[in-house]
């Protein structure tokens, strides 16, 4: 089973790119973030024509998450992160496929830091950590994936000294990510490639992609049940070179059958 995550940075603006990538990569499950479209503007018909069923939680102008499946039925199990019923931002959606619980998330950016946006990011992380505790207690396979907006370590960013005060790299958020791996969650990319320079995002400015001045902020966290089933992982960096593409590249993993 091939599972991918992709921050599309506007699903309707990037729809040709998304459809082209789906046809070339053919993942079984796709988690999308930053749809930037209200619920009624999600391109369900075009995605269905490409062979994918979908569930989504849209939001006007910003945010928005979706899960697509190829040749498999998909049903939403949750469309928000527990812990704050007044949080109206569309940042989490969950389903279960072939016995694997899949959570797709778009964690807040948090800039500028310090500030109210950074405070919201820290509160969201607290809620997320509490929920991951709950998920681990289910004692079943879980995949948590998406744009975490967290650079876990210096190896995950070009010239880390330039990011010390950024909300993606501040000690508080790096500590929060580390607490998840200490809790037992497996960083799939680092499990297979512990020391390699791997980026998933390149800014549109200053020729970042051509210089490979990137960040690794799109992650897969796997529950311990899936450690032995993880067989491959990678970044479809070539998609970032296409015209009118997202500033993120798709990231994927492959899990063998149980």
UniProtKB/TrEMBL annotation:
Keyword Aminoacyl-tRNA synthetase among UniProt keywords: no
Start and end residues of each Endonuclease/exonuclease/phosphatase domain: 4-248
Cofactor(s) the record lists: Mg(2+); Mn(2+)
EC number: 3.1.11.2
Claim: Aminoacyl-tRNA synthetase is one of the keywords in the record: no
Similarity field: Belongs to the DNA repair enzymes AP/ExoA family.
Any Pfam family matching the protein: Exo_endo_phos
Highest taxon, organism lineage: Bacteria
Keywords carried by this UniProt record: Hydrolase, Magnesium, Metal-binding
MF GO annotations: double-stranded DNA 3'-5' DNA exonuclease activity
Name of the protein in its database record: Exodeoxyribonuclease III
Source species: Pontibacter populi
